[in-house]
Design brief:
This protein is of the alpha/beta class. The chain has 2 domains: about 160 residues, Rossmann fold (3-Layer(aba) Sandwich), CATH 3.40.50; about 90 residues, ProC C-terminal domain-like fold (Orthogonal Bundle). Strand 7, helix 5 and strand 8 form a beta-alpha-beta unit. Helix 6 crosses helix 11 and helix 7 packs across helix 8.
Length: about 260
């Protein structure tokens, strides 16, 4: 069968997308090719995904998903240019469209994406931006790939730094909140296993309710908060500590660092 896509880089994100594409029916293992330099990793991928084509070199003229470390992207793009690749989707953090287009063959349709790690469990959030030569069809193509592991929005490239500060780095903020909630619960006398189970389910339940409700986050918060009640007491501490301003500073700092990395 003809190869529909080659994934350049068989690491965690590359394999997550590989699994998503296969599970949603976008492609089967025998229509996907993974380029991976590490021999042990190639073997592991072959065992985990029967029928998958795995090699150390890219195929000629096959659309590519670039899922490698940022510092080797220019070298990878040069190799893809030699292989006659005319369309590419990059999930390499901080690598600009201009950098990608300069390293790939002239006229290549390029789409840049900022996904996040929940893609590993099919619940990712990604934003994509079109390069100079990318058409709406190319954006649809990129969306169809990334939507196999989560949700996708289309933005201008200038917005990708803000996306990085929000959803790209956002899972770490949630994990930090989870750590703090578990520690606080244990300080109040709960055992570590109970604190972990309740924290996990609370975060999952609240996120699911927010995703499925027609109400805004503010309304849902108000629904939980009775005047003079326990939730109000807790939220008052957040307000006194300037929680909203703190979150704004956190996202801003991450977005600014993304801008700095993209400029190097």
């Amino acid at each position: 069968m003809n190869t529909r896509l080659q994934i350049i880089g068989g690491g965690n994100m590359g394999e997550a997308l590989l699994g998503g594409l296969a599970s949603t029916g976008w492609a089967s293992n025998d229509t996907l090719h993974v380029v991976e330099l590490d021999a042990d990793r190639r073997q592991a991928l072959s065992v985990a995904h029967p029928g998958l084509s795995v090699g150390s070199e890219p195929l000629t003229g096959v659309d590519a998903l670039i899922a490698v470390k940022p510092h080797i992207v220019p070298t990878v793009c040069a190799t893809l240019a030699t292989a006659g690749v005319t369309r590419a989707l990059s999930i390499a953090a901080g690598v600009t469209l201009a950098t990608l287009e300069a390293a790939l063959a002239p006229g290549t349709a390029v789409v840049r994406a900022m996904p996040n790690t929940p893609s590993l469990v099919g619940l990712g959030a990604a934003a994509i931006a079109a390069g100079t030569n990318a058409s709406n069809d190319d954006l649809d193509w990129a969306t169809s790939i990334l939507s196999s592991v989560g949700t996708v929005v289309v933005v201008d490239e200038t917005d990708l730094d803000a996306v990085t500060g929000l959803s790209g780095s956002g899972p770490a903020y949630v994990f930090l909140l989870a750590e703090a909630l578990m520690a606080a619960a244990q300080a109040e006398g709960l055992s570590a296993p109970i604190a972990k189970e309740l924290t996990q389910q609370t975060l999952l339940g609240a996120a699911t309710l927010l995703a499925n409700s027609e109400d805004s986050a503010a309304t849902l918060r108000q629904n939980v908060t009775s005047k003079g009640g326990t939730t109000a007491a807790g939220l008052a501490v957040f307000e006194q500590a300037g929680f909203g301003d703190l979150i704004q500073q956190v996202v801003s700092a991450a977005a600014q660092r993304a801008r700095e990395l993209g400029a190097t």
